[in-house]
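Notebook entry, structure prediction.
Reason for the run: the old model in the group folder had no record of what sequence produced it. Starting over properly, with the input documented here first.
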Amino acid sequence: MTQLYFVRHGKTQWNLESRYQGAGGDSPLLKESYDEMNLLAKHFSKVPFAHVYASPIKRARITARVITEQLRGKPGLSLLSRLEEFHLGKMEGMKFDVVKEKYPAEFENFRNHPDLYDPTEIGGESFSDVINRMTPAIQMIVRNNPGKDVLIVSHGAALNAEINSLLGTSLPDLRKRGGLANTSTTILQTKDNGRTYQLVKWNDTSYLNRPIDPTDVV
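New structure, fully documented this time:
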């Protein structure tokens, strides 16, 4: 059995400000986010992770490095561009309420109707685009780590889409489990080398010891 621990990066300034932050944008991690990375690392200190994989975007890369340095045996860390966040085009860096006014259909469908989300106007990626680029990376990770525990650090919207897809969720229903919080962990396991996946835990933040704020979740 291979277990995949999917971690969303620590909270950033743009997360706090409710701004879209995709593959084309980045903002600094908040000071308190480092404390939360440490709490996550402590929580999983006894898990014998074979390897850590992360998006190369700075907020995810730093999150992965901070956590990895504290894990048992200090496993190796590999950066994979396929694990990047959605490319959000014109929405990048814009506040949610501004996008809601300027691109109402894109705003509504990105949040609630993945099958209807059309990024043509904004110049971004669709849900299918993201899933199709991420899935080969996950398949490679499982293939290279049979029967092991692996940590994967990526981004909220991309992880939400990919994890639900791995669980066999249809495109219209990808958002029905809700969002993923900053520094949360979602665990999947596969007993057949990646042909099927089972959900062990969704959006776990119990180790953060604080209530989750709406700006934490995407």
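Summary: The two ends are 29 Å apart (CA to CA).
The old model has been moved to the deprecated folder.
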